[in-house]
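**User:** Everyone, produce a chain:

**Assistant:**
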Amino acid sequence: MIDSESLIKDLIAKRELRVTLSAIREYIREGDKSLAAGISEDKDCLDALRSALDSSDPKERKSAVLLIGELPLGKDLAASFLKALMTGYGKERTLFVRESYLKSIRALSDISPLGTDDLRALRARLVQIDSGSFTEEDMKHILSERKQLIQIPGMAERREAAEFVEPESAGLFLLPVKGLYRPLKEELMSRGIDKGYSSAGVLVAASNVEKVRDCRLYQSFWYRIRGRFSGKTETLSDEIRNSGLPDLLLSAYKSRVVSIRINVHQRKDGSSSASKRFAPELLYLLRGRAVNTAPYDLTLHFLPRKSGGLILFADPAGARDQRFSYVRERLSTSMQPVKAAIMVYLVRNYLHQDARVFDPFSGNGTLLLERDQYLTTRVMFAADTNPLAIRAGEENARLKGRRVYFVRRSAFTFESDRPFDEIISELPDLYEKSDADRDEFYTMTGETMERLLAPKGRAFLLAGGNEIKAMIRKSGSLSFLEEIPFDDRRSIYVIERI
Protein backbone atom coordinates (compact mmCIF):
# COMPACT_ATOMS: atom_id res chain seq x y z
CA MET A 1 0.00 0.00 0.00
CA ILE A 2 1.33 3.46 -0.89
CA ASP A 3 2.21 5.57 2.16
CA SER A 4 1.33 9.24 2.51
CA GLU A 5 4.96 10.37 2.13
CA SER A 6 5.18 8.65 -1.26
CA LEU A 7 1.90 10.28 -2.32
CA ILE A 8 3.29 13.73 -1.54
CA LYS A 9 6.38 12.98 -3.63
CA ASP A 10 4.22 11.74 -6.51
CA LEU A 11 2.09 14.88 -6.30
CA ILE A 12 5.10 17.18 -6.46
CA ALA A 13 6.50 15.19 -9.37
CA LYS A 14 3.04 15.08 -11.04
CA ARG A 15 3.51 11.36 -11.43
CA GLU A 16 0.36 9.50 -12.56
CA LEU A 17 -1.49 12.58 -11.38
CA ARG A 18 -5.06 11.33 -11.67
CA VAL A 19 -4.31 8.20 -9.63
CA THR A 20 -2.23 10.15 -7.10
CA LEU A 21 -4.92 12.78 -6.51
CA SER A 22 -7.61 10.13 -6.07
CA ALA A 23 -5.44 8.21 -3.59
CA ILE A 24 -4.73 11.38 -1.55
CA ARG A 25 -8.44 12.20 -1.40
CA GLU A 26 -9.18 8.64 -0.25
CA TYR A 27 -6.60 8.94 2.56
CA ILE A 28 -8.13 12.23 3.69
CA ARG A 29 -11.69 10.85 3.60
CA GLU A 30 -10.52 8.02 5.84
CA GLY A 31 -9.37 10.58 8.42
CA ASP A 32 -5.67 11.12 7.64
CA LYS A 33 -5.48 14.70 8.91
CA SER A 34 -1.67 14.72 8.86
CA LEU A 35 -1.61 14.19 5.09
CA ALA A 36 -4.08 17.04 4.50
CA ALA A 37 -2.10 19.32 6.82
CA GLY A 38 1.20 18.33 5.19
CA ILE A 39 -0.05 19.24 1.71
CA SER A 40 -1.50 22.53 2.98
CA GLU A 41 1.91 23.52 4.42
CA ASP A 42 4.04 22.40 1.48
CA LYS A 43 4.56 25.06 -1.18
CA ASP A 44 5.60 22.53 -3.82
CA CYS A 45 2.39 20.51 -3.24
CA LEU A 46 0.27 23.62 -3.52
CA ASP A 47 2.06 24.69 -6.70
CA ALA A 48 1.41 21.23 -8.16
CA LEU A 49 -2.29 21.59 -7.40
CA ARG A 50 -2.40 25.02 -9.05
CA SER A 51 -0.69 23.58 -12.08
CA ALA A 52 -3.17 20.67 -12.21
CA LEU A 53 -6.01 23.15 -12.72
CA ASP A 54 -4.60 23.67 -16.26
CA SER A 55 -4.32 19.95 -17.03
CA SER A 56 -5.70 18.80 -20.38
CA ASP A 57 -7.35 15.84 -18.62
CA PRO A 58 -10.76 16.92 -17.22
CA LYS A 59 -10.70 14.12 -14.61
CA GLU A 60 -7.33 15.39 -13.35
CA ARG A 61 -8.77 18.90 -13.14
CA LYS A 62 -11.79 17.58 -11.26
CA SER A 63 -9.70 15.67 -8.70
CA ALA A 64 -7.38 18.64 -8.17
CA VAL A 65 -10.30 21.02 -7.70
CA LEU A 66 -12.02 18.74 -5.18
CA LEU A 67 -8.80 18.15 -3.22
CA ILE A 68 -8.25 21.91 -2.89
CA GLY A 69 -11.66 22.24 -1.26
CA GLU A 70 -10.86 19.46 1.21
CA LEU A 71 -7.61 20.95 2.55
CA PRO A 72 -7.40 22.88 5.86
CA LEU A 73 -6.20 26.14 4.33
CA GLY A 74 -5.66 29.37 6.20
CA LYS A 75 -7.53 32.51 5.23
CA ASP A 76 -4.82 33.93 2.94
CA LEU A 77 -4.28 30.64 1.09
CA ALA A 78 -8.03 30.12 0.80
CA ALA A 79 -8.40 33.57 -0.74
CA SER A 80 -5.58 32.84 -3.20
CA PHE A 81 -7.05 29.50 -4.25
CA LEU A 82 -10.54 31.00 -4.49
CA LYS A 83 -9.22 33.39 -7.10
CA ALA A 84 -7.70 30.48 -9.05
CA LEU A 85 -10.90 28.42 -8.75
CA MET A 86 -13.08 31.29 -9.94
CA THR A 87 -10.80 31.78 -12.95
CA GLY A 88 -10.85 28.06 -13.68
CA TYR A 89 -14.62 27.85 -13.29
CA GLY A 90 -15.07 30.69 -15.76
CA LYS A 91 -12.92 28.88 -18.36
CA GLU A 92 -14.19 25.33 -17.72
CA ARG A 93 -16.23 23.86 -20.55
CA THR A 94 -16.58 20.27 -19.32
CA LEU A 95 -19.94 20.18 -17.54
CA PHE A 96 -19.18 17.45 -15.00
CA VAL A 97 -16.13 19.42 -13.78
CA ARG A 98 -18.01 22.70 -13.26
CA GLU A 99 -19.99 21.22 -10.35
CA SER A 100 -16.71 20.25 -8.64
CA TYR A 101 -15.38 23.80 -8.93
CA LEU A 102 -18.48 25.09 -7.17
CA LYS A 103 -18.20 22.53 -4.35
CA SER A 104 -14.69 23.75 -3.55
CA ILE A 105 -15.58 27.42 -4.04
CA ARG A 106 -18.36 26.89 -1.51
CA ALA A 107 -15.97 25.21 0.96
CA LEU A 108 -13.29 27.90 0.71
CA SER A 109 -15.78 30.77 0.84
CA ASP A 110 -16.57 29.68 4.40
CA ILE A 111 -12.93 30.57 5.22
CA SER A 112 -12.53 33.61 2.99
CA PRO A 113 -15.85 35.15 1.77
CA LEU A 114 -16.28 35.82 -1.93
CA GLY A 115 -16.09 39.38 -3.14
CA THR A 116 -18.86 41.35 -4.81
CA ASP A 117 -17.49 40.80 -8.34
CA ASP A 118 -17.23 37.04 -7.81
CA LEU A 119 -20.81 36.83 -6.52
CA ARG A 120 -21.99 38.92 -9.45
CA ALA A 121 -20.30 36.50 -11.87
CA LEU A 122 -21.88 33.48 -10.17
CA ARG A 123 -25.32 35.09 -10.24
CA ALA A 124 -24.87 35.83 -13.94
CA ARG A 125 -24.19 32.13 -14.51
CA LEU A 126 -27.34 31.26 -12.57
CA VAL A 127 -29.37 33.58 -14.80
CA GLN A 128 -27.74 31.99 -17.83
CA ILE A 129 -28.78 28.53 -16.64
CA ASP A 130 -32.34 29.62 -15.81
CA SER A 131 -32.84 31.30 -19.17
CA GLY A 132 -31.11 28.70 -21.33
CA SER A 133 -32.17 25.52 -23.11
CA PHE A 134 -30.16 22.34 -22.74
CA THR A 135 -30.22 18.85 -24.13
CA GLU A 136 -31.51 15.97 -22.03
CA GLU A 137 -27.95 14.60 -22.01
CA ASP A 138 -26.60 17.81 -20.44
CA MET A 139 -29.47 18.46 -18.04
CA LYS A 140 -28.12 16.17 -15.29
CA HIS A 141 -24.89 18.17 -15.05
CA ILE A 142 -26.64 21.52 -15.52
CA LEU A 143 -28.99 20.80 -12.62
CA SER A 144 -26.11 19.64 -10.42
CA GLU A 145 -24.23 22.85 -11.23
CA ARG A 146 -27.30 24.92 -10.39
CA LYS A 147 -27.77 23.11 -7.08
CA GLN A 148 -24.21 23.96 -6.06
CA LEU A 149 -24.52 27.58 -7.22
CA ILE A 150 -27.49 28.41 -5.01
CA GLN A 151 -25.79 26.92 -1.94
CA ILE A 152 -22.74 29.17 -2.07
CA PRO A 153 -22.73 31.71 0.80
CA GLY A 154 -23.86 35.12 -0.39
CA MET A 155 -25.72 33.84 -3.45
CA ALA A 156 -29.10 34.13 -1.76
CA GLU A 157 -29.99 37.81 -1.89
CA ARG A 158 -32.01 39.22 0.98
CA ARG A 159 -35.70 39.21 0.34
CA GLU A 160 -38.91 39.57 2.23
CA ALA A 161 -41.07 36.52 2.75
CA ALA A 162 -43.61 36.15 -0.03
CA GLU A 163 -47.12 36.71 1.30
CA PHE A 164 -49.55 33.96 0.36
CA VAL A 165 -53.01 34.78 -0.98
CA GLU A 166 -55.40 31.85 -0.76
CA PRO A 167 -56.46 30.63 -4.22
CA GLU A 168 -60.12 31.12 -5.04
CA SER A 169 -60.71 27.58 -6.24
CA ALA A 170 -58.51 24.74 -5.03
CA GLY A 171 -59.12 21.35 -3.52
CA LEU A 172 -57.78 20.52 -0.07
CA PHE A 173 -55.97 17.53 1.37
CA LEU A 174 -56.84 17.13 5.05
CA LEU A 175 -54.18 15.46 7.18
CA PRO A 176 -55.51 13.60 10.25
CA VAL A 177 -54.00 13.55 13.71
CA LYS A 178 -51.91 10.40 14.03
CA GLY A 179 -54.11 7.56 15.32
CA LEU A 180 -57.25 9.70 15.21
CA TYR A 181 -58.42 9.31 11.61
CA ARG A 182 -61.72 7.60 12.48
CA PRO A 183 -63.49 10.61 14.05
CA LEU A 184 -62.40 12.83 11.14
CA LYS A 185 -63.74 10.38 8.56
CA GLU A 186 -66.96 9.93 10.53
CA GLU A 187 -67.55 13.68 10.70
CA LEU A 188 -66.75 14.27 7.03
CA MET A 189 -69.03 11.44 5.93
CA SER A 190 -71.84 13.09 7.89
CA ARG A 191 -71.17 16.27 5.89
CA GLY A 192 -71.60 14.48 2.58
CA ILE A 193 -67.92 13.85 1.76
CA ASP A 194 -68.25 10.30 0.47
CA LYS A 195 -64.97 9.85 -1.43
CA GLY A 196 -61.34 10.93 -1.43
CA TYR A 197 -60.29 8.87 1.61
CA SER A 198 -56.81 7.32 1.72
CA SER A 199 -54.45 6.10 4.41
CA ALA A 200 -52.60 9.44 4.29
CA GLY A 201 -55.61 11.76 4.54
CA VAL A 202 -58.74 13.01 2.82
CA LEU A 203 -58.81 14.69 -0.58
CA VAL A 204 -61.64 17.21 -0.74
CA ALA A 205 -62.71 18.57 -4.13
CA ALA A 206 -62.85 22.35 -4.58
CA SER A 207 -66.64 22.15 -4.82
CA ASN A 208 -66.78 20.64 -1.31
CA VAL A 209 -64.28 22.87 0.48
CA GLU A 210 -66.96 24.99 2.17
CA LYS A 211 -68.43 21.83 3.67
CA VAL A 212 -65.21 21.17 5.61
CA ARG A 213 -63.99 24.70 6.27
CA ASP A 214 -65.05 24.74 9.93
CA CYS A 215 -64.20 21.10 10.75
CA ARG A 216 -61.90 21.04 13.79
CA LEU A 217 -60.87 17.37 13.63
CA TYR A 218 -57.95 17.41 11.18
CA GLN A 219 -54.34 18.31 11.99
CA SER A 220 -53.61 20.52 8.98
CA PHE A 221 -54.29 20.83 5.27
CA TRP A 222 -52.53 21.22 1.94
CA TYR A 223 -53.82 22.70 -1.31
CA ARG A 224 -54.32 20.34 -4.24
CA ILE A 225 -52.40 21.30 -7.38
CA ARG A 226 -54.16 20.35 -10.59
CA GLY A 227 -52.26 17.92 -12.82
CA ARG A 228 -50.81 14.42 -12.96
CA PHE A 229 -47.15 13.56 -12.53
CA SER A 230 -45.54 10.36 -13.75
CA GLY A 231 -42.53 10.48 -11.43
CA LYS A 232 -40.22 10.51 -14.47
CA THR A 233 -37.89 13.46 -14.90
CA GLU A 234 -38.02 13.25 -18.70
CA THR A 235 -41.72 14.20 -18.65
CA LEU A 236 -41.62 16.55 -15.66
CA SER A 237 -41.14 19.69 -17.75
CA ASP A 238 -44.36 19.21 -19.71
CA GLU A 239 -46.23 18.04 -16.63
CA ILE A 240 -45.30 21.17 -14.66
CA ARG A 241 -46.27 23.45 -17.55
CA ASN A 242 -49.64 21.72 -17.91
CA SER A 243 -50.35 21.69 -14.16
CA GLY A 244 -51.85 24.35 -11.93
CA LEU A 245 -48.52 25.14 -10.24
CA PRO A 246 -47.44 28.10 -12.44
CA ASP A 247 -50.90 29.67 -12.03
CA LEU A 248 -50.79 29.14 -8.25
CA LEU A 249 -47.43 30.86 -7.96
CA LEU A 250 -48.60 33.80 -10.05
CA SER A 251 -51.94 34.30 -8.30
CA ALA A 252 -51.08 33.31 -4.73
CA TYR A 253 -47.79 35.18 -4.55
CA LYS A 254 -48.52 38.07 -6.90
CA SER A 255 -45.45 37.37 -9.06
CA ARG A 256 -43.07 37.53 -6.07
CA VAL A 257 -40.03 35.24 -5.98
CA VAL A 258 -41.01 32.24 -3.85
CA SER A 259 -38.70 30.06 -1.76
CA ILE A 260 -39.75 26.46 -2.33
CA ARG A 261 -38.90 23.24 -0.53
CA ILE A 262 -39.79 19.95 -2.24
CA ASN A 263 -40.69 16.70 -0.50
CA VAL A 264 -41.23 13.55 -2.57
CA HIS A 265 -42.97 10.91 -0.47
CA GLN A 266 -41.61 7.64 -1.80
CA ARG A 267 -43.39 4.32 -1.72
CA LYS A 268 -41.81 1.76 0.58
CA ASP A 269 -40.20 -0.03 -2.33
CA GLY A 270 -38.14 3.09 -3.04
CA SER A 271 -39.20 3.19 -6.70
CA SER A 272 -38.70 6.17 -8.98
CA SER A 273 -35.17 7.14 -7.94
CA ALA A 274 -35.42 9.94 -10.51
CA SER A 275 -37.63 11.82 -8.05
CA LYS A 276 -34.46 12.91 -6.26
CA ARG A 277 -33.93 15.28 -9.17
CA PHE A 278 -37.34 16.91 -8.86
CA ALA A 279 -36.13 19.84 -6.76
CA PRO A 280 -33.40 21.20 -9.07
CA GLU A 281 -35.40 20.44 -12.22
CA LEU A 282 -38.53 22.09 -10.88
CA LEU A 283 -36.61 25.21 -9.84
CA TYR A 284 -35.01 25.31 -13.25
CA LEU A 285 -38.39 25.07 -14.96
CA LEU A 286 -39.77 27.95 -12.90
CA ARG A 287 -37.01 30.15 -14.35
CA GLY A 288 -36.17 32.62 -11.60
CA ARG A 289 -39.64 32.72 -10.03
CA ALA A 290 -38.53 30.33 -7.28
CA VAL A 291 -35.50 29.71 -5.09
CA ASN A 292 -34.58 26.93 -2.68
CA THR A 293 -33.27 28.73 0.41
CA ALA A 294 -34.57 28.99 3.95
CA PRO A 295 -36.82 30.41 5.26
CA TYR A 296 -39.25 28.64 2.92
CA ASP A 297 -42.49 30.20 1.71
CA LEU A 298 -43.91 27.01 0.27
CA THR A 299 -43.43 23.26 0.60
CA LEU A 300 -44.49 21.09 -2.33
CA HIS A 301 -45.46 17.51 -1.49
CA PHE A 302 -45.47 14.81 -4.17
CA LEU A 303 -47.50 11.83 -2.93
CA PRO A 304 -47.79 8.47 -4.70
CA ARG A 305 -51.13 7.62 -6.28
CA LYS A 306 -52.72 4.18 -6.00
CA SER A 307 -53.03 4.10 -9.79
CA GLY A 308 -49.36 5.03 -10.24
CA GLY A 309 -47.50 8.30 -10.60
CA LEU A 310 -47.65 11.21 -8.19
CA ILE A 311 -50.12 13.85 -7.05
CA LEU A 312 -48.95 17.32 -6.01
CA PHE A 313 -49.96 19.40 -2.98
CA ALA A 314 -48.85 22.84 -1.79
CA ASP A 315 -48.27 23.69 1.87
CA PRO A 316 -47.72 27.46 2.18
CA ALA A 317 -46.07 28.91 5.27
CA GLY A 318 -48.06 31.40 7.30
CA ALA A 319 -51.18 31.30 9.45
CA ARG A 320 -53.99 30.42 7.05
CA ASP A 321 -55.71 27.98 9.41
CA GLN A 322 -57.74 30.15 11.79
CA ARG A 323 -59.66 27.37 13.56
CA PHE A 324 -57.58 27.66 16.73
CA SER A 325 -56.30 31.21 16.38
CA TYR A 326 -57.32 31.97 19.98
CA VAL A 327 -54.52 29.70 21.27
CA ARG A 328 -51.77 32.30 21.45
CA GLU A 329 -50.28 31.15 24.76
CA ARG A 330 -49.15 27.56 25.22
CA LEU A 331 -47.00 25.60 27.63
CA SER A 332 -45.01 22.49 26.71
CA THR A 333 -47.59 20.44 28.62
CA SER A 334 -50.61 22.10 27.00
CA MET A 335 -53.09 19.88 25.17
CA GLN A 336 -53.05 20.39 21.41
CA PRO A 337 -56.25 22.23 20.44
CA VAL A 338 -57.07 19.74 17.66
CA LYS A 339 -56.82 16.87 20.18
CA ALA A 340 -59.05 18.79 22.56
CA ALA A 341 -61.59 19.22 19.75
CA ILE A 342 -61.43 15.49 18.95
CA MET A 343 -61.91 14.54 22.60
CA VAL A 344 -65.01 16.72 22.81
CA TYR A 345 -66.31 15.26 19.55
CA LEU A 346 -65.91 11.71 20.86
CA VAL A 347 -68.04 12.44 23.96
CA ARG A 348 -70.53 14.69 22.14
CA ASN A 349 -73.50 12.39 22.76
CA TYR A 350 -73.10 12.83 26.52
CA LEU A 351 -72.90 16.65 26.58
CA HIS A 352 -75.61 18.98 27.93
CA GLN A 353 -76.62 22.38 26.57
CA ASP A 354 -75.90 25.28 28.98
CA ALA A 355 -73.96 23.04 31.36
CA ARG A 356 -71.84 24.14 34.29
CA VAL A 357 -68.42 22.71 33.40
CA PHE A 358 -65.21 22.31 35.40
CA ASP A 359 -61.68 21.26 34.35
CA PRO A 360 -59.70 20.32 37.49
CA PHE A 361 -56.34 20.08 35.63
CA SER A 362 -56.96 22.80 33.09
CA GLY A 363 -53.53 23.93 31.89
CA ASN A 364 -54.19 26.80 29.47
CA GLY A 365 -57.91 26.00 29.25
CA THR A 366 -58.01 24.68 25.67
CA LEU A 367 -60.19 21.67 26.50
CA LEU A 368 -62.81 23.86 28.19
CA LEU A 369 -62.88 26.30 25.29
CA GLU A 370 -63.27 23.49 22.77
CA ARG A 371 -66.05 22.00 24.91
CA ASP A 372 -67.82 25.36 24.77
CA GLN A 373 -67.13 25.62 21.01
CA TYR A 374 -69.05 22.39 20.36
CA LEU A 375 -72.03 23.12 22.64
CA THR A 376 -72.49 26.37 24.53
CA THR A 377 -71.92 26.22 28.28
CA ARG A 378 -73.51 28.29 31.02
CA VAL A 379 -70.36 28.73 33.09
CA MET A 380 -66.79 27.38 32.99
CA PHE A 381 -64.35 26.96 35.89
CA ALA A 382 -60.70 25.93 35.57
CA ALA A 383 -58.21 24.97 38.26
CA ASP A 384 -54.43 24.61 37.97
CA THR A 385 -51.48 25.11 40.30
CA ASN A 386 -49.20 26.59 37.62
CA PRO A 387 -49.45 30.41 37.49
CA LEU A 388 -48.09 30.44 33.91
CA ALA A 389 -50.90 28.12 32.82
CA ILE A 390 -53.48 30.33 34.51
CA ARG A 391 -52.10 33.42 32.81
CA ALA A 392 -52.02 31.69 29.41
CA GLY A 393 -55.57 30.39 29.86
CA GLU A 394 -56.94 33.81 30.77
CA GLU A 395 -55.36 35.33 27.66
CA ASN A 396 -56.67 32.57 25.37
CA ALA A 397 -60.19 32.88 26.80
CA ARG A 398 -60.06 36.65 26.27
CA LEU A 399 -59.05 36.18 22.63
CA LYS A 400 -61.89 33.71 22.14
CA GLY A 401 -64.35 36.12 23.70
CA ARG A 402 -65.44 33.65 26.40
CA ARG A 403 -65.48 33.91 30.17
CA VAL A 404 -63.62 31.22 32.10
CA TYR A 405 -63.09 31.46 35.86
CA PHE A 406 -59.49 30.39 36.37
CA VAL A 407 -58.46 29.50 39.92
CA ARG A 408 -54.88 28.87 40.99
CA ARG A 409 -55.52 25.92 43.26
CA SER A 410 -55.17 22.16 43.45
CA ALA A 411 -58.17 20.29 42.09
CA PHE A 412 -58.39 18.42 45.38
CA THR A 413 -58.95 21.58 47.44
CA PHE A 414 -61.17 23.41 44.95
CA GLU A 415 -64.59 24.35 46.35
CA SER A 416 -67.78 25.41 44.59
CA ASP A 417 -71.08 26.56 46.09
CA ARG A 418 -72.94 24.80 43.27
CA PRO A 419 -72.22 21.35 41.76
CA PHE A 420 -71.21 20.91 38.12
CA ASP A 421 -73.10 19.21 35.32
CA GLU A 422 -69.84 18.12 33.72
CA ILE A 423 -66.18 17.66 34.60
CA ILE A 424 -63.84 17.31 31.63
CA SER A 425 -60.08 16.95 31.84
CA GLU A 426 -56.87 15.44 30.53
CA LEU A 427 -55.37 13.87 33.64
CA PRO A 428 -51.68 14.42 34.43
CA ASP A 429 -49.13 11.90 33.19
CA LEU A 430 -48.21 9.71 36.17
CA TYR A 431 -46.08 7.09 34.43
CA GLU A 432 -42.97 7.96 36.44
CA LYS A 433 -44.82 7.99 39.75
CA SER A 434 -44.80 5.09 42.20
CA ASP A 435 -47.78 2.76 42.56
CA ALA A 436 -48.56 4.33 45.93
CA ASP A 437 -48.52 7.86 44.48
CA ARG A 438 -50.78 6.86 41.59
CA ASP A 439 -53.19 5.11 43.95
CA GLU A 440 -53.37 8.21 46.13
CA PHE A 441 -53.94 10.47 43.12
CA TYR A 442 -56.84 8.43 41.75
CA THR A 443 -58.42 8.05 45.18
CA MET A 444 -58.41 11.84 45.59
CA THR A 445 -59.65 12.28 42.01
CA GLY A 446 -62.61 10.00 42.71
CA GLU A 447 -63.46 11.92 45.87
CA THR A 448 -63.31 15.18 43.88
CA MET A 449 -65.71 13.81 41.26
CA GLU A 450 -68.18 12.73 43.96
CA ARG A 451 -67.89 16.07 45.77
CA LEU A 452 -68.22 18.39 42.74
CA LEU A 453 -70.55 16.56 40.34
CA ALA A 454 -74.30 17.06 40.51
CA PRO A 455 -76.52 13.96 40.56
CA LYS A 456 -76.61 12.60 37.00
CA GLY A 457 -73.60 14.81 36.28
CA ARG A 458 -70.92 13.34 34.04
CA ALA A 459 -67.14 13.32 33.97
CA PHE A 460 -64.99 12.84 30.88
CA LEU A 461 -61.43 11.93 31.88
CA LEU A 462 -58.61 11.27 29.42
CA ALA A 463 -56.17 8.89 31.08
CA GLY A 464 -54.18 5.67 30.66
CA GLY A 465 -54.12 2.43 32.60
CA ASN A 466 -56.77 0.70 34.70
CA GLU A 467 -56.72 3.12 37.64
CA ILE A 468 -59.90 4.90 36.55
CA LYS A 469 -62.00 1.74 36.74
CA ALA A 470 -60.48 0.89 40.13
CA MET A 471 -61.32 4.44 41.28
CA ILE A 472 -64.97 3.96 40.26
CA ARG A 473 -65.21 0.64 42.08
CA LYS A 474 -63.91 2.23 45.29
CA SER A 475 -66.40 5.10 45.12
CA GLY A 476 -69.90 4.97 46.46
CA SER A 477 -71.63 7.17 43.92
CA LEU A 478 -69.77 6.93 40.59
CA SER A 479 -70.95 4.76 37.71
CA PHE A 480 -68.88 3.73 34.68
CA LEU A 481 -70.65 4.46 31.37
CA GLU A 482 -68.11 3.96 28.57
CA GLU A 483 -64.43 3.72 27.67
CA ILE A 484 -63.66 5.45 24.36
CA PRO A 485 -60.21 4.66 22.86
CA PHE A 486 -58.25 7.82 22.15
CA ASP A 487 -54.58 7.24 21.32
CA ASP A 488 -52.18 4.31 21.63
CA ARG A 489 -51.97 4.55 25.43
CA ARG A 490 -55.02 6.45 26.65
CA SER A 491 -58.80 6.31 26.61
CA ILE A 492 -61.61 8.70 27.52
CA TYR A 493 -63.52 7.36 30.52
CA VAL A 494 -67.14 8.50 30.73
CA ILE A 495 -68.41 8.48 34.32
CA GLU A 496 -71.77 9.43 35.83
CA ARG A 497 -72.55 10.37 39.41
CA ILE A 498 -75.46 8.31 40.68
